[in-house]
Amino acid sequence: MRHLAEVLVAGFIIEYLVVPQIGGTHEALHVLAQANPLLPLAGLLLEGVALLAYFQLTRMLIPRHSDPGLVTVSRIQLSTLALSHCVVGGNTVGYLLGFRLFTKAGVTRADAGVALGTQALGSAVVLNVIFWMAVVASLPFYGLHPAYLSAALAGLLLMGAVVGLFFLFTRGDRRALNALRVIGTRTPLLHPETLPRLFTQLAGRVHQLSADRRHLGRAMVVAAANWLFDAGSLFVFLGTFGYWVNPVALLVAYGVANILAVIPVTPGGLGVVEFGLISVLVAFGVPSSVAGIGVVAWRLVNFWLPIPVGGAAYLSLRVHPPPGDQAGLAARRAVWRARWAWFVDLFNREPPMADVDEGLSVIESGVPDQDLAQEDGDGSAERDPAEGRAGDGPARADGPVR
Which of 155, 174, 321, 384 has the most CB atoms within 10 Å of its CB? Predict the structure, then answer.
């Protein structure tokens, strides 16, 4: 019954909030007829790059001695994405699944929990920074719209709360521990001591990252790449249907939608993201038919496609599980390097050395192949009777030469 209620809520939001934004059927068909069939491939490619940045960010936050490799991290993160897109409160459930899969892959419990928590909070901070920069950049062109002011304030308050918790944890404040215990008590599938222990470890990890400025900067760049390439995919899908949105307006709408998606109403923000994006884009002047069809097309690759792909990734983890330690990972990498070297060698094989030496001797002597065939047993070629002997002088006349 619970899952049925979730489906009904999602269907209600899509039916009564998203569909009316798309516009009339005649106008929608006209927009579809003008679509560029090649641009969706570019949008799909950008979405793939965004996912790759997402995987790499998780890997960068795992200590090197526990790194399971990019392939394993990708399979685990795809599995968690698929699950988080299927249940309400999917971020929490996906975190628990990722924690279990990473520990099975040889990552310690502390490293897995801190990496997943740091990635989630760090990505949220980077998203809010991008959003606020876009809001400030949009003020001279569009002014301040009430449509996204509430989302901006909500994101700012959320980031302020996270920063405040970290500040209190670094000082060992007991009020922060008690607050997290209360949250853990009221959150399903969580032990009351899980959040305090996690935030304590997160505070220590953030302190380590702040000491290594170069690694912290690379992690922030990768987190920003994840959001920007995902927004770029949305930009291309809207352009597919004939309208290229101002990038500043696009980032504002994108930030509003993803901040609203944090509210655990539907799986993965289904319906909430679409409604937020379409509403803000229309407020910025995008035709409602283009905004509706473009957003729905983008969500096909952003929300729906990771579900079957993530299911296949989870199945691959069950059929071909990752090695449980660094020694097994090194042995598996050596096997794949050997297979790759064998494959490359198929196309780079050189001719036998005997053939090469014979070809070089022919080129150096300048003698055609048919003359080589006329050589006798001792290696000397037959001479033309009309030719004089080697070393002879010019032919003599009958009389003396003066």
Answer: 155
Tell which wins on pLDDT, 293 or 23: 293
To which H or E segment does residue 117 belong?
helix 109-142
Distance (Å) of CA 319 to CA 68, 76, 170, 228, 263: 17, 13, 43, 34, 35
How is residue 12 written in tokens? 């209600």
Can you give the pLDDT at residue 210? 66
pLDDT digits (tens, 9 = 90+) for 337-351: 787 777 777 777 655
What is the SS3 string spanning 316-356? HHHHCCCCCCHHHHHHHHHHHHHHHHHHHHHHCCCCCHHHH
- Tally of domains in the chain: 1
**Domain of 48?**
2-335
Where b means 16+ CB within 10 Å and e means fewer, 280-296 reads bbbbbebbbbbbbbbbb
Residue 370 belongs to a domain? no
Burial of residue 113 (number of CB atoms within 10 Å: 0-12, 13-18, 19+): buried
Beta bridge partners of 375: 381
CA distances from 122 to 22, 42, 79 (A): 34, 28, 21
Q: What is the pLDDT of residue 260?
A: 83
Query: Rounded distance, CA 22 to CA 287, Å?
Result: 9
Higher pLDDT, 284 or 189: 284
Residue 323 backbone class (left: φ over 0; alpha: ψ -120 to 50; beta: rest): beta
Domain membership flag for residue 392: no
- Assess whether pLDDT exceeds 60 at residue 21: no
CA dihedral 223, 227, 228, 230 (to 10 degrees): 130
